[in-house]
Fold each of these.
Amino acid sequence: MKRRRRRKRIEFEFNPKYLWIFCIVFCAALMFLSYRFPERFSGVKTVVGNVITPMQRGINSVGRGISNRLQAFQSVKKLQAENEALRLENDGLKVKNQQLTQEKRELDGLRQLYELDAKYIDYEKVAARIIASDTNNWFYSFIVDKGTQDGIAVGMNVLAGSGLVGIISEAGDNWARVRSIIDDNSNVSGMSMDTQDTCIVSGDLKLMKEQGVIRVEMISMDAAFRDDVEVVTSHISDKYLQGILIGYIRDIEVDFSNMTKTAYLIPAVDFEHLDEVLIVTELKDAYDFD
């Protein structure tokens, strides 16, 4: 039998770099020939131009698109950086504004204390800062940073705003507690600045929170009280020095017994916003604290 001869498969390997070299040489040759013989290669130029021009347009279009996107991206980054800078500047301005507001409030408070000190110049006084309160909204009982080491004693009158805040109810070495006139347990003997008629100003925290007033009781039926009259501490008080402004009368009416009158009083002090007070370092001679 005859054996079949197997044909050997010829393997051919092609390196792409030779194709690139060929294309470069071919293009260079065309460029040289078109330059050397422009008339003979005019047709070739036309064909090549018709093929390459659309490609160039496409490449240019893609390039413009990429360039526009890069510019937009850079613009966004620039805007983000500017926005962050403005945000930081705005935060700084907010902090500065808060500081200025706080400083203005403190300055206004000091000005009020100065005016109050001048108003009651006959009384020796010590300024004190409030360091704690029984509530965040209303200062019916609070602690100040002055105590017995500063000459503070139980029973001393406390002032702020335009008049009476309350009285020292406790005192330690470097602190003291103030019970204000709006406290439910507070009773102040007052009198009308016009007629010297007396009354009792009673604290009422609930009424103060709801209507901004406290109660006035025990007004004589013959007393000539009228709305908006100033009520000050009376000479018969055993706790409070005479003549300190408490507030202003309003809504006077006869009580249910038909023997006395009652009314409401708008305090001369803003008990919702207190920072500093003046403590009168003098006790009433007839003082008997309950």
Amino acid sequence: MSAQVIDGKSIAADVRADVAKAVSQLPGQPTLAVVLVGEDPASQVYVRSKVRQTEEVGMISIHHRLPDTASQSDVETLIASLNADDSVDGILLQLPLPKGLDADAAIEKINPDKDVDGLTEVSAGRLTLGKPGLRPCTPTGCVILAKRALGEDLSGKHVVVIGRSILVGKPAALLFLAENCTVTIAHSRTRDLPAMCRQADILVPAVGRPQMVTADWVKPGATIIDVGINRIDAPEKGEGKTRLVGDADYAASAEVAGHITPVPGGVGPMTIACLLRNTVLAACARRGWPVPDSL
């Protein structure tokens, strides 16, 4: 058996096309404000990509940069001004923040109705209670990928999420639960983790341990949605070279699984696509616009 590859790049492009169609049907342009603090090179790349893709789907992008000398008060004052700006529909605080700044405290200053990353306590509460709200982007992308592989109805599927982070593990579990899946959250203290994983119809490793999930952890025919993005040494590419791998041993697991996401090119591209989708949903909720059918 060789698994079918779940092409995250292609599916993310489909989501962005749906967002662009939705934007074209709205009475106004949604606006996403991105806040970047400091000079982290990776963050600068991510922000440029988010700004570009926001504009490509027809939305307005506002980009605020603060120096790495910015204080907690500077960051929170900027967020407060964006909360108060009625033209801004979504606020994204690019993480990580420079050392000495409290990201959790800053995120809590974001108006939950503009929390397009779905990270505030209010957003988490709405998710837990099943109330309408903005959902975290990466876990939302995981559900979309699973549906593209297995069909819209995931009812009764046993999902095993490895990892209990507030960024991915916990919200992913709740989102799959909302799809009528049976969900197990596994973690470092789980007894006989490989045996637990072998019960999964959908396995979602999200712990940041390179190639931890080996072929003998995978139920034959299972779907693997690999959230891990890890950089490891790649001497075969030359001295000092590295490559990206997931939390699953891709080559070996693909021999057992029915469907699998690659790394890179799987879950990663879905995160920005779902961010754009959230911005449209936030705009519709705030402005009383009907949500277009394409979403």
Amino acid sequence: MSLYETKIAGLDGTPNRLPTEQGKVTLMVNVASKCGLTPQYEGLERIHERYADQGFSVLGFPCNQFMGQEPGSPAEITEFCSTTYGVTFPLFEKIDVNGNDRHPLYADLTASPDAEGYTGDIRWNFEKFLVSPDGEILARFSPQVEPEAAEVTEAIESALAG
């Protein structure tokens, strides 16, 4: 089963929103509005805009598991992201990325290693996963890796080149 077949609603309540992204290269990121890494929204939006016409999208998955740094309602999250950071990329329903209630999408994503070989639980907000158009996990980047870092943009460009 492709990751894109995983059932998850959009932040606006649109049911089963993820399948509409199949066929694109995506960067799936667990996000939060009250985190020291929240300014990464700026870089995420810039790479979303830079590569969108080539079949790329950033996908944001709000999560409140890290020190309660995403406490907002869907409307509050949407408002914050659009007014503070100009976010236009798709945001999905707030989910758990670790633990017993981990969303099935993240059960699949966390099995993938990063460049240092780390697999397992999400370490913090803004962990990033590059996913191919058919749902294969291509790369994992730690939360501290900036969205516009060379290793991220080079991986995106390589995936888009096919």
